[in-house]
Amino acid sequence: IMMYDKKTKESLTLVKLWTDTIRLFYSEKHTQLDREINSLQDLQDYTVATSQAPEPAHRPSSSTRLKTVRVLDHSKILEMVSLGHANFGAVVESTGYNIIEENFAEHLPYFKTIDRPILQYDAGLIIKHTSPEGEMLNSRFQEGLSIIQSNGVLDQIKMRYFDNTDPLLHEHDKQTLVTR
Q1: Which pLDDT score, from 0 to 100, does residue 3 have?
Q2: Which of 47, 73, 106, 164 is least surrounded by CB atoms within 10 angstroms?
Q3: HSE of 14, CA atoms in CB hemisphere, 13 A
């Protein structure tokens, strides 16, 4: 995707590598859902640990009493959920279960996510064209990206590092991924 930064007057290329989601993780051990969560208003009686305050467009109205706790580290957010100090933790889905497996394995059977993601975004790389090597870097990056897309290595990288959202993914499946 070609872009133009009006502030710096630079041409930029955004190379989308994957789409990720932020989900609300909760522990069935500490939080029993008595209703479906479809909006921020549905969270008004719960405490949500998050690394960022909601954007103005996503902030609940003044009539919604959303209790949030701002925590900068996703591991700390999930720790708060596992201990019952927060009902929900807003965490990037692709890393959430990896953090749980590494730090809270004994709580893994209790961790769940609500069905609807609260945010979806494209993750990628931005390359400046105004730098002397920008065009060459973009060209070489695109060439390399097309190679690893066509030979399946990009899918393997995504599966190994970003798509392990299924806590039931077997260790054998993870170990069969090609590492380069």
Answers
A1: 66
A2: 106
A3: 10
